[in-house]
Amino acid sequence: MDLDGVEKVRRCQNKKMKNYIKKLELEFEKNANSENASGQKAYMKNHFEFYGIKTQIRRNIQKSFFTKNNLPAKDDLENIVKHFWGNPQREYQYFAQELVEKYKQQFEKNDINLFEYMVINKSWWDTIDFISPKLIGEYFKMFPNQRDRYLNKWIASKNIWLQRSSILFQLNYKENIDTECLSFVINSLLNSKEFFINKAIGWILRNYSRVNPKWVMNFADKTKLDKLSRKEALRLII
């Protein structure tokens, strides 16, 4: 294909991307509910604006946008995500992260930069607790050689959301959790006074106790866990 042909294809792809964004925005605007929005905003400590679209309604709206024929080109994913991340209403970030999950079989090595962007911008537990296990967790399965480099970076960053991500990326690994890695991350963050860090430590340990309670009990006994972390870790055991 000559340069003119490539440019025509790109313009067509750009137009499709813009139409995709606009259609989603119109659907969300059409389904706004100010009464619901007030309650949702309060629940999130007034950190974000909301349209007031309940989760099931939002997911029903999203269905047509997530069909195979309607999904945008993978090359456009970063631009779409960053566009929606820039919108004030929280529903757009929920949509964007769930859109990214649709491409988990197509993750590329440099996608970690997009995941980092999503973690450190408009950060709160509701997005981190999706991005970390469902996006970053899948990414590190595909690119294990990237894992230690980024975990070390995130732990040292002093950004609590990157640190929380370093804890929770294995949340869905079940019996395949790398306990050496988990031990390293937890021990690196033991002195944290942050609620969201100590809660995450307890959560990952509690989840792992479903498949390996003996390991979790032994780890809790030999590690000076924060009280909150220990309570959460052992909730299913004692």
User: How many strand units?
Assistant: 0
- Estimated structural class: mainly alpha
Number of helices: 13
Oligomer: single chain
Taken as a percent bin, the fraction of beta residues is under 5%
Main beta-sheet annotation = none
List the helices and strands and how they pair.
Layout: H1 3-30, H2 34-43, H3 55-62, H4 77-86, H5 90-101, H6 111-120, H7 125-142, H8 147-156, H9 160-168, H10 179-188, H11 195-209, H12 213-222, H13 227-233
Helix pairs in contact: 4-5, 5-7, 6-7, 7-9, 8-9, 9-11, 11-12, 11-13
Describe the structure.
The protein has 238 residues and is mostly helical. The chain is 66% helix and 0% strand. The chain has 13 helices and no strands. The radius of gyration is 20 Å and the shape is globular. The N and C termini lie far apart (66 Å). The model has no long low-confidence stretch (mean pLDDT 95).
Could you name the key traits of this structure?
single chain; 238 residues; mainly alpha; 13 helices; globular
Q: Gist?
A:
The chain is 66% helix and 0% strand. It contains 13 helices and no strands.
